[in-house]
Design goal:
The chain is α+β, with helices and mostly antiparallel strands and 280 residues long. Helices cover 29% and strands 23% of the residues. The strands form 2 sheets. Strands 1, 3, 4, 9 and 10 form a 5-stranded antiparallel sheet that branches. Strands 2-7-6-5-8 form a 5-stranded antiparallel sheet. Strand 5 and strand 6 (179-186) form a beta hairpin. The two termini are 38 Å apart.
Length: 280
Amino acid sequence: MEALRARHGGSSSKSNLDDSPQRSSSSSCSTRHNSNNKQSHRLPPPNSLDYLQAGHVNRVRSFPHVEGNYALHVFIPVYIPPAARKEIALFLKRVTSLVPALNFVDVDIPLYVLCEDDQNLEQVALGREFHISLGRTVPIRVHQIDSIVAMLRQKFQSQRRYWIDFSKWAVFVNDERTRSFLSVEVITGGLAEITRQIHAVDEIYRLHNLPEFYKDPRPHVSLAWALGDVSQSIKRVFEELNRSNNSGKFSQKRIFTCKFSGIKCKIGNRTYKICKIPED
């Protein structure tokens, strides 16, 4: 952990992606240490994402910031079961050894740094909440917020639990071709249900003059990203790993499975619970 502390214990800067509908002042601070510790700030716990994010890479908006706009994102929260994290961590280590430019998604830390500590990678990074997007992340105006949230809750009030199988490693590139994403894709169990949910979100987007999702959606969870279009490089890594692995471990039929537990909507910095399926 001391190596990670030294690597990420310096000043951090974070681009202001979204303003919250409940506006509040925010400031970035630097964590510094001197021999006397007179000006040192208390670090977050070493097993927290706040600690891991110290010194992270700045993010880039997919659309320009406009005063009074808030980023809207509708998604299914996903948690990777503990039993699957070790195999996923092993795969990520193999990939980052061949594509060192990868960063862990959202945490925005070089993946090779996380791979230096199994506990951070498996329990902290892979133990956090991921998401399957049900619509594009788009800017909306403040007067649209209540209407969108109300319609989403009405549309999804009678959802039932189903299983989601993540069965394929895939690479996606954003519309601007400025980032590539290493992801796990849903191609069997849960695909029909998620596709219907995407179409339902599209209906609400249309009513608010917002751009709909892709015509042929490919539901997935992204785990890592790299700048630019490096999709061919990552695909070659997939091929190389599968060729070198006689047991077919990295092309297995099911990477992990989880239950659909609900839908959330993030607008600015505020997250709204759209629907939640009670535990059995």
